[in-house]
Amino acid sequence: MVDVRAAREVVDIITGGWRAQALYAAVKMGLPDHIEAGARSSAELAAVTGAEQEGIRRLMRLLVAMGVFAGSESRGYQNTPVSAAVREGPHSLRDMALLHGEEYYAAWGKAHHAIASLSSGFEEAYGTSFYAYLSQEPETARRFQHTMNSGNMFFDAVPEAFSFAGKHVVDVGGGGGHLLATILSATPDANGVLLDREHMLSRARAHLTAVLGELDRVNLVAGDMFESVPAGGDVYIYCRVLAGWEDAAVVRAFKACYRAMVGDSSRLLVIDRFVVDEGSTVLPALWDLHLLMTNGGRHRSRDNFVGLLDRAGFEVERDVQLPMETTALVARPRL
Prior knowledge:
Number of strands: 9
Shape: globular
Strand content: 15-25%
Strand order of the largest sheet: 5-4-3-6-7-9-8
CATH class of the largest domain: Alpha Beta
CATH superfamily of the largest domain: Vaccinia Virus protein VP39
Radius of gyration: 22 Å
Structural class: alpha/beta
């Protein structure tokens, strides 16, 4: 006898990619923005997008059923909070939907190869590494940075979890500057340094300037975190920058940090999502596999990080739980 409930769950799981692609198609055509601008029917949406009306009508039928949009063909379509989240705007998830619907979708199409060989699905799909591809495709690189920024929903909790008052903060691999801007905005007497590759500094400068105004409390430094980091910091932060690297490289990065510290009062913060083999929830397990698909990387367990910190001369002082199943490990130099 067929277990109908189990069969339905299988169908829901295996058609998840179809649902994602339906949302991607709507975002690609800008349907949420066109609806907000007044296009209410499939005919009007087809006219402004250049798509076939029947295709739009059938797509909207599904997306209304999914709760992405509200309304109907006869009554007109309206946005919901879901579709509003992918409209154009400073906090939009639009670039995330496009990146996941294109490059990431292609990488996950090579899931069997990636899992069987423990290598990047993206590289199998595109013939080059993910980061090499980003260096050649500026529009995809822009979407990737926006996607990373959109995933920073735990940033506001960081200044609440650790006291940065009066501290000199070094954000290692700080990317577009969002975390450092959040910390300095919440802590007026702190100052900071952002270390990253040269090509990232212009983006960081633009964001930090937009948030803080004058950059009198910020210094931007181009460099390689595996070789050296700016000396004299009270707090060194490694936020989601270690997943794509082998253990030996991570230890090298931590040792560079150890050398830069001026005393045992300095602290190192590792902010990441940790995996567990027993009783795992979906989010960390899913993103661990996503790292394999994109760059061949992985999320680490807490014990793995503790061991790597120990090899570099650190001991973990405490754990701080952050939103989105993210954890901050606070480590100090071992005496």
